[in-house]
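Chapter review: from sequence to fold.
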Amino acid sequence: MRGQTACRTLRGALGRQQCQFRRTYATEVQQPAATVSSETEVGSARAYCLDLLRKYDTPSFLLQSYMPPKTRDAYLAIRAFNIEVVRTADTTSTPTIGSMRLQFQRDAITKALAGTPPKQPIAVLLAHAAEDLQRRTNGKSKFSKSWFHRIISTREQYLTNPPYPDLAAVESYAENTYSTLMYLTLQAMPMASLTADHVASHIGKATGIATVLRGLPLLAFPGPANHHSNQGGMAGDVGATRQGSVMLPLDVMARHGVREEQVLRQGAEAPGLRDAVFEVATRASDHLITAREMVKNIRAGQDAGHDFEHGHEEEHMNYGPSQSSTPAQEIQQAFPVYLSAVPTSLWLERLQKHDFDVFAPKLRVTDWRQPWKTWLAYNRSNF
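The token string follows.
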């Protein structure tokens, strides 16, 4: 195995080293014009959401300062919503209770987007952001309730940690969670651009796939309920079951001879595990490479190079043609949202340095380089 790992490096996103690999709707919610909450309530809700990010999602906490001021409340509410949904699985003892709590989240989102939020900080801030978005756009832009519900439904589907049958299933999970979070943030800017969404889709898939890898140790050896990391989207998503499981795609495990019971007994030294992790990490890296190449092509006046896989979905199809912006201008406007590629890329780079050992303790802490790398990416408009 050591002879194999000498050539195990992720290309492109991690430095284009010596090895080569194969891969290079908005559901409208009518919102009233009236103020949904007092300024005091909104201020308290904002502070609550910011503190939630500080505690549980360090990457998003660092990235929020790069969001346009008019978008920041929406970003805080969306990311705080994601934390609450993720934590639901980790703080409930049974899937049934988890489903009940997720239904509460659905109801809160529906009421918040209708302008009648429950007295819950995330719902209050989201309702405020939705009202502000409508005011700024004279009612032309609204958040997609279906995208919020998609995130909740996907999390609910994985409350019991069912196995992913293949890598495509992991990509679908990532699209329905992390890519969708980015679509919602783009809506808040406001942006209705297939080009911007297409790039966001690839970055979100990379983040979601990396999250599955990062969560592997937590799922294989789950701690007590309420045990959380502050890495947010990069922390790994732990289901409601406390029994150990190995959440790698079954087809990848079969190709590399990985057996769940051996991982649960031997951890990082289980036969074939690092090779399997390498294959999954390569797919995440490929999505980052694709996003970078798309941005480069679009800025050069070319097309994206391939069709948007999810462009046929209702939320995306409801976009009208842009009357005032070129694709390159849309990419530049959306760039703060794309900065979530930075912590994902840094984590994949560290995974490679640890020879794809997902159990390495240093992979569980925030990368000290992230503030500097994010600032550099923002100022160079290059992630």
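Two observations follow directly from the output. Residues 211 and 234 are 5 Å apart (CA to CA). The mean pLDDT is 88.
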